[in-house]
Structures are given as structure tokens and as C-alpha cells.
Amino acid sequence: MQQPITLRSMHANQSGIIDSVSATGELGRRIRDMGLVPGTPVTIMGRAPLKDPVALKLRDFILTLRNNEADLIMVNVNESGEIRQ
Amino acid sequence: MNATLALMGNPNSGKTTLFNNLTGARQHVGNYPGITVEKREGRLKIEELDITVVDLPGTYSLTAYTQDELVARNFLIENNPDAVVTVLDATNLERSLYLVLQILELGTPVIVVLNMMDEVRRKGVSIDTTRLSALLGTPILEMVARTGEGREALLKEARKAMLEQRPARTELRISYGHDLDETLDAMQELIDSSNFLDGRYPSRWLGLKYLENDAEVLALGQSKPDVHARLREMTATLADHCRKTLNTEPESLIADYRYGFISGLLKDGVVTRPTTQARFDLTDKLDTVLTNRLAGPLLMFAIIYLMFELTFTLGEVPMGWVESFFGWLSEKASATLPEGLLSSLIVSGIIDGVGGVLGFTPLILIMFFFLSFLEDSGYMARMAYMLDRVFRIFGLHGCSVMPFIISGGIPGGCAVPGVMAARTLRSPKEKIATVLTAPFLSCGAKVPVFLLLAAAFFPGSGASALFWITLGGWVMALLSARILRSTVIKGEATPFVMELPPYRMPTLKGMCLHTWERVWQYIKKAGTVILAISILLWAAMTFPGPSEEQTARFEDQRATTQAMAWDSDEALEEALTGIDNAEAQEALRTSLAGMIGTALEPVSKPAGFDWRTNIALLGGFAAKEVIVSSLGTAYSLGEVDPEESVGLSEKLRSDPAWNVWVAVSLIAFVLLYAPCFVTVAVIGREIGWKWAAFSVGFNTVLAYGVSVTIYQVGMKL
Question: Were B407 and a residue from B40, B259, B415, B526 both cysteine, which residue would form a disulfide, CB within 3.0 to 4.6 Å?
Fold first, then answer.
């Protein structure tokens, strides 16, 4: 098993499973309400034209986060890293 | 029998589509008292039941995190509706159930509607609703709100829920793991035994809210300080324990367990997915183009430009009809009514004033129709996504796009709903900056002024002039936002956690209702505020009027002129008209508005405005629509030849006081100066009266500075 990496460092079309979310307060609550909790599979859909925010697919919908928010989410990426959920 | 039915659900779950389907046009949009969350109500009859349907704001959760969530939550607790229907996007079950769980934990019986079942079927997914219904302990119905499929079953179920004896409150109990459960049990015991908050809330739910540090519940709890302190203590002990053993907060654990509970619900064949899932669905395909790094922004600007080109091309025809109708009306009125004050009030005050405003109804109608399409189709969220990086540079948020666009980022908007739309912004600082700068954009009421001036001084290039003015509005809004965010409202950026909803073809009915709602608000404004202001302005432009001596002098002049020998009747007519004009001019100059306008002339001269423009601008503070109508009134009062109906823009072009630089300076001033008083009132309500006053002062000073610069530099060229 590889070390978890930040959501920010994932590239487009890469998939993984959320390992931990270290966001607290308002941001943390918002992130969790949207279903970004440990154990959730996510796939990076792409990034906005200016590379930020990032769009990701989880639980059958698309969510967008800013890169500095994505820094707080650690993901275990698949070995192949290219499989969509 | 009367009953209340509340609709709840995530944003984009099709809740409003269902609401429209149930109530049709019998709906009413207002505000919850004291706050600007929209309150949407409609009527529905099911057999003997006369039902008020309340469309609660779309939320993802029931925390005290946003006003929308609070309104929804408090409505459930305080109004205790006879039936609650929760609308779920069935293609997105897990996250939708997260909200359902929270409603069930609150002990509110719900009817769960699985909406968009057509999409679910198309994807080859099957949902065992009978089983899910048994697991959740609530009725679950399948529906397609846009076609009305499943409507009858829902009505039957709702009727049943309303007529049946309400079962004693039974809350859903989710296990939150050993540590939390233990604390929750202890809290529950304490709350029950002390009759904390008079038993108005389920005790376990209150415990959960303490663990979640819910601001609203904590504030309520302070009314009983001893129990409150005990509960806080228990929370602190648990939080400490969680931090030590699990390196996490109780709040995070609660969300984890809720999602865990949902995963438990959905496994074991409740949801069956096809083994070979299509690699891309329609939304993914569209997004590869529409949010593409290069194509995305280009398409976005193309869509915005196309939208207003279309609006103006399509709007021109019905606008002409409305204008000629009011022209006909004022002709009829002046022909029937005896000349005098009454005729002047009705023709120059009421018909011209209100007609000028209503003339733009077709434009606003088409514009809102397109806006509804962008909003309902899911594209508006993509605009926020693509523009967030840019907006952040100026200290704003991607979500500032909506208030900006609605305020007139695409001309034809209105700052009133625009400012209201800013409440979706989570951070007070970004919200204040958005609210203060959104009025710089070209709202629908400013557009007529721009079109008038463009027609007069840039003939034939109305659309491109408007394009540049709109761009100018954006530049000024963004630059001033940056200035404000680094001076008076400094602070960190807020989270950008936003859903990109799937692309969906909006329903025609929904779009029409949406459009009609906003157009009706505009028409109502014309019928009430603007009518009153038109009359006030007319009065201000008529009274006190010239002195008797002055009137007598004009009479003398007329008598002398008529006594003279003239070559032809036409020459005499011409001379008399000249005197009439001079008298009318004098009448306006000696009116209250004329006096104020004249008094302000030394101040406005550096920007190129004479007293007549000043009158119009003063009126524009009441409502921007008034600028054109009062300019019209000012000029038509100064020219009483009924045979000659030169358009206002013709008049401006031929007036020696006007030139291109006056026009540009006035455009800039109208774009930037104080928002109309309705907007100021909304700003006051949204972010406080101090800021409302600030916006009046700041905007006017800024507008004046820009206009003076334009005029002075322009005249030197």
C-alpha cells in the first residue's frame, strides 16, 4: 500500500479512496455534509481553466473544491490510478 | 379542511419542479420575516383537503450553518407541518439520504419521493424501494416530477398522512459508535429529566447538536445555564477523548457514521447497478467541452454575448408594440382631456412615466427566460467553477458570479434579486464585498439610459456599446471589490465547496413560471413605486412654477407677436411656438426640480451635466427607470409642439448642450452612482444600514470622479 497523497496532487482521471479529512470548523462541516468522509471513493474529473478549483466525482455527483481545500484531504490512490469507479 | 405540506430536498433535486407540478400557477413568492430567504407557497386541493404547499429552501444538511438550513429546520420544528415530502434525486441517493436521516432524527415523519426515476432506469440502475422503505420506516414513492409520473400516488400518500392520527414522535436512532452513544445516552437522560427546553426538541437530537457545536441550539440552551453547562462539559470530555484515541472530532465521527449508516442501507441489493457501466454519461461528455481549459471560457463568453444579442433582436418587436401603445394612449388622453394641470399630470406624469418603464418589459422577460435556462440547466454552476480563480483575485468567491450576473452582469438583470442572491455566500466578508459592488453592473433599469444615449450618439451600434458598457461595469465592480477587500473589509477567503449538478433540460413550465415571477415583480414595481415617483417628479417639475409676472410677460409677447404683420400664417405659428417653448423652459427652471438641478449645476458642470440631467439623476435615485422617463418629461415639457414627435434621442443629439463626451460621462455616472432606493433598502436588510449608507456615498463619489475624468479628458482631446 502506498502512502496517502493529497487530493491536490492527484491528476485528472485518477481515482482513490479518501483516507482522512483534516479540515475543521465550517469548511470541515461543509466537506463532510457533501459526503467527503474517509472510505469514500473519488475520481478527479478535471480542473477549471485556471487550474483551480478542482472537480471531483464522488457518490454519483460532481463536487468542486479549491486547491487549498483539497490539501486537507488525503487519498489512497489505486495502484493503476486510472480506473473510474 | 386546511393542512400544510412542506417540501424539502437538496438543491437540484427537482423539488421546485415538483412544487410547480403540484401547485401550478397558484403560487406566491415572498420572504420569511426579517431575513431574505425566499418563501414559496402554493395551493393544492386533494379531495376535501385544502392544502398550503410550502417549498422550503434546498439544503444538503440541517446544521445551523446557513440561513437556508435554519429556515428549513425551524419550519419543521415550529410549524409542525401536517406532512413533509422530501424530494431526492434518485441518481444521487447517498447524499440525498444524508438529509433524510437528519429529518428523521428530528422525529418528523416524512414521505420520501425518489425523483428522476427515468434517469435511474436509463442508467440501468434498479432501486428496491419496498425494501428501502421498510429499512427506513417511511413511505417511499418513485416519481418523475417533470412529467408528473407518480403524482397521483404522492397525493394519495399525502392525504393519508394528513388525515391519519399523527403517531407519537419517533426519532430514528443511528448508532454513532460506543463512545458517542454512551455520551448521547447520558445527555438524553439529563435532558429528559430536567425538561430541558420544555421538551420542544427530541432529546437525543439536542444531544447530537451539542456534540456538533450547533450555534443555534447552543444559544437556545443558555436559557437553562446549569443543564447547558453540564452538556457542554460532557461534549468537551468526549471531544477530548476522541482527539486522544481517534485523532478526530465528534462532529466528524457523526458524519462518518451517518454515511456509514447509509452505505448499510443501500447494500444487500437495495441498489443494483449494471455490471458494465457506461464510461461517460452525458454530463461528463458535455463537461469535457463546456469546462475545457480553452473551449470552456470561450464558449462561456460566446453564450453570454449571444444571449444578449438574441434578447435585443427578439425584444425589439414587442418593445415597439408597447411603446406605440403608450404613444397612442397619451395622444388619446391629450386629445380628450381639456388642456391644463390634469391633462399634464396624466400625459406627462403618469402615461409617459409608467409607459417608459413598461416598454422594457419584453426585454426583461426574454432576459429572465434565458437566465432561468442557464440556472436550471446547471450551466450557471459551471460559470462559478470556471470563474472562481478570477474572482478570488478580487477578494470575491466563485459564487459571486450569480449575484453579479443577476444584478446585471448580463444586462437586463436587477440589483434587488442580485443582492438577495448573495446570501448563498458563506463568508460575511465576501458577501459584503459582493453586495456592495453588484450594483455597479448594468441592471435592466440602466439599460434604457444606455440605449437612449447610444442611439443618439453612437447610432447603429447599440449592441456593441452595451457590450462595452457591461464590460466596464464588471471592471469597476471587480476593481472596487479588490479595493474594499484590502481596506474596509479585509479577511481570509471562504471555502468553495460546490456541487456541479448534472446538465438537465429545464422544463418549459418551470422556466415560464420563474420568468413570470420576476417580470411580475418588475411590473408591480412599475405600477406602484414608479407610478408614485412619476407623479412626485411631475409635481416637482410643475410646482411652484413661474410667477404671475413672468406668465404675464409671455402673454404680452404673444399679443405683440400676433399684432405684428406676418408674411404667412406659418411664420406666425413658428414665432408663437418659440415663445411657448421659452415659457415651458422657464416653467421647468422655476419648478422645485429645476431649482435643485440648477443649484447643483456648479457641482455637475465639471462632469458635463446641466440642470435637466441633474433632475433626471435625482429621480434615478428613486428608481433608475425614472432617468429616461424624467429626461423625456423634462424635454417634452420644454417642447409642447404636439405635431412634432421627435424621439428623445433625436432631441438630445440636436441639443447644443450635448456631445459625445457628455454622453459617455453620463453613461459612466449612471452605471456607477448610488443604487436605487429599493436596492439600498435590500442592502440594508442584508448586511446592515451602515453598509447601505456607505454604498450610497461610496458609489456616488466614485461615479462623480470617473465622470469628471472622462468629461475633462474627453473635452481636451
Answer: B415
Final residue in a domain of this structure, among B140, B163, B186: B163
- Please name every residue paired with B46 in a beta bridge, in sequence order, or none if there are none: B49
Q: What mean pLDDT is predicted for residues B457-481?
A: 89
CATH of A5-77, one of 2.30.30.90, 3.30.1360.40, 1.20.272.10, 3.40.50.300: 2.30.30.90
pLDDT value of residue B495: 77
CATH of the domain at B224: 1.10.287
Least confident of B130-134, B199-203, B205-209, B500-504: B199-203
Q: Is A49 in contact with B294 (Cβ distance < 8 A)?
A: yes
Chain A contact for B497, CB < 8 A? yes
Distance from CA of A3 to the nearest CA of B (A): 18
Q: Are B180 and B245 in contact (CB under 8 A)?
A: no
Number of domains chain B is built from: 3
CB-side neighbour CA atoms (13 Å) of B345: 12
Domain that holds residue B141: 2-163
B495 touches chain A (CB under 8 A): yes
SS3 annotation, B113-177 = EEECHHHHHHCCCEECHHHHHHHHCCCEEECECCCCECHHHHHHHHHHHHHCCCCCCCCCCCCCH
Per-residue pLDDT averaged across B98-115, rounded? 91
ipTM of the complex: 0.91
Q: What is the pLDDT of residue B399?
A: 77
Q: Please indicate, yes or no, whether residues B139 and B264 belong to a single structural domain of this protein.
A: no
In tens, the pLDDT along B293-309 reads: 899 999 988 887 787 67
| Same-domain status, B551 and B671 | yes
Chain B: give the shortest CA distance to residue A10, in Å: 18
Chain A residues near residue B385 by CB distance under 8 angstroms: 48, 53, 55, 64
Put simply, the answer to whether A65 touches B385 (Cβ < 8 Å) is no
Question: What is the predicted pLDDT for the residue at B685?
Answer: 75
